[in-house]
Amino acid sequence: MNTLKNDRYLRALLRQPVDQTPVWMMRQAGRYLPEYKATRAQAGDFMSLCKNAELACEVTLQPLRRFPLDAAILFSDILTIPDAMGLGLYFETGEGPRFERPISSMADVQKLGVPDPEGELAYVMNAVRTIRRELQGEVPLIGFSGSPWTLATYMVEGGSSKAFTRIKKMMYAEPAALHLLLDKLADSVIAYLNAQVAAGAQSLMVFDTWGGVLTPRDYQDFSLQYMAKIVDGLVRENEGRRVPVTLFTKNGGQWLEAIAATGCDAVGLDWTINIADAKRRVGDRVALQGNMDPSMLYAPIPRIEQEVAGILDGFGKGAGHVFNLGHGIHPDVNPEHAGAFIEAVQRLSRPYHQA
């Protein structure tokens, strides 16, 4: 395997010295780029794009051709595992993802198997292998999955939700069914992420998009304990290098210490927490990733630069910060603003890494 020309991102996740703060963006391969829209049109629809290794590779590399990013992230969807479990994923125009056969009882959960990453999910591994080859060691490749709780919300709700009434009904009225579902999902995520590492992913991220809708007790019982199980089950070393793991719970700022205690290498922060406070609370137990509000990219460029400066100042000197947005980049952001953001991080962060 080729050696990495730029390992700044991996080093920062392991709290090792870097020359400048690494930066990448959630959803950096996406609808804000005209070239992405063209490739998606060529694929026909979103899942066809995910399932075509060459096209998934193309959209993964598109942002790297435009911007000097420090990492590539696999182009895929968090709902690949539930789809492989046979729930019948489809996308409703303007509605987002839906499932033909949602989970509503213990009997439904008992029927589910753990998908074979090189079977039903082989298309994801083929994409990882293709991207890794085409990156030619320029930057590391991030593999990812949704968290068990987040995947379960879509599987039980049948799609996106605002109130999460169905999954919370299961959680409070049939907790044994939900725990069995989450346990099967944790086993599936472990197999899936380890297969991504075997296929060439050099870092892993777990997206817990909906953990923040839970009470503190339920977050611990129904989300965090399953992410901790995943962290325990992951291959953490490959190709002679540590494979860092980042956990990201949207609206999870109140549980930072508990997330950091799982044994992960880094904690992703959304924009609702001050990064200086976060660093004070977790010290140097973990690296931090984040955390500019994605909507800041609508601002004039000088205002974006000011925000970048403030977040860098909040984290302060030293290693252990990966700059990112607090969630995915919005589809209607001007790519020039994204470029100005990345340039500002690189230019303004250098003084924080000088001895």
Keywords:
355 residues; alpha/beta; TIM Barrel; seven-stranded parallel sheet; two-stranded antiparallel sheet; 15 helices; 11 strands; 47% helix; globular
SSE topology sketch:
Blueprint: H1 8-13, H2 34-43, H3 46-51, H4 53-66, E1 72-73, H5 80-84, E2 89-92, E3 96-99, H6 106-111, H7 122-135, E4 141-146, H8 148-157, H9 165-173, H10 175-199, E5 203-208, H11 216-233, E6 237-238, E7 241-242, E8 245-249, H12 256-260, E9 266-268, H13 275-282, E10 287-292, H14 301-315, E11 321-325, H15 335-349
Parallel strand pairs: 1-4, 4-5, 5-8, 8-9, 9-10, 10-11
Antiparallel strand pairs: 2-3, 6-7
Question: What is the compact description of this entry?
Answer:
The protein is α/β, with parallel strands linked by helices. It is 47% helix and 13% strand.
Residue windows where pLDDT falls under 50 for at least 5 positions: none
The radius of gyration computed from the alpha-carbon positions, rounded to a whole number of angstroms, is 19 Å
SSE run: HHHHEHEEHHEHHHEHEEEHEHEHEH
Number of helices: 15
Overall CATH class: Alpha Beta
**What is the 3D shape?**
globular
Q: Tell me about the largest β-sheet.
A: 7 strands, parallel
Give the helix/strand class.
Answer: alpha/beta
What is the second-level CATH architecture? Answer: Alpha-Beta Barrel
Strand order of the largest sheet: 1-4-5-8-9-10-11
Describe it for me?
The protein is an alpha/beta fold and 355 residues long. It has a single domain, classed as TIM Barrel. Helices cover 47% and strands 13% of the residues. The protein is built from 15 helices and eleven strands. It has helices at residues 8-13, 34-43, 46-51, 53-66, 80-84, 106-111, 122-135, 148-157, 165-173, 175-199, 216-233, 256-260, 275-282, 301-315, 335-349; strands at residues 72-73, 89-92, 96-99, 141-146, 203-208, 237-238, 241-242, 245-249, 266-268, 287-292, 321-325. The strands form three sheets. Strands 1-4-5-8-9-10-11 form a seven-stranded parallel sheet. It has a two-stranded antiparallel sheet with strand order 2-3. The model has no long low-confidence stretch (mean pLDDT 97).
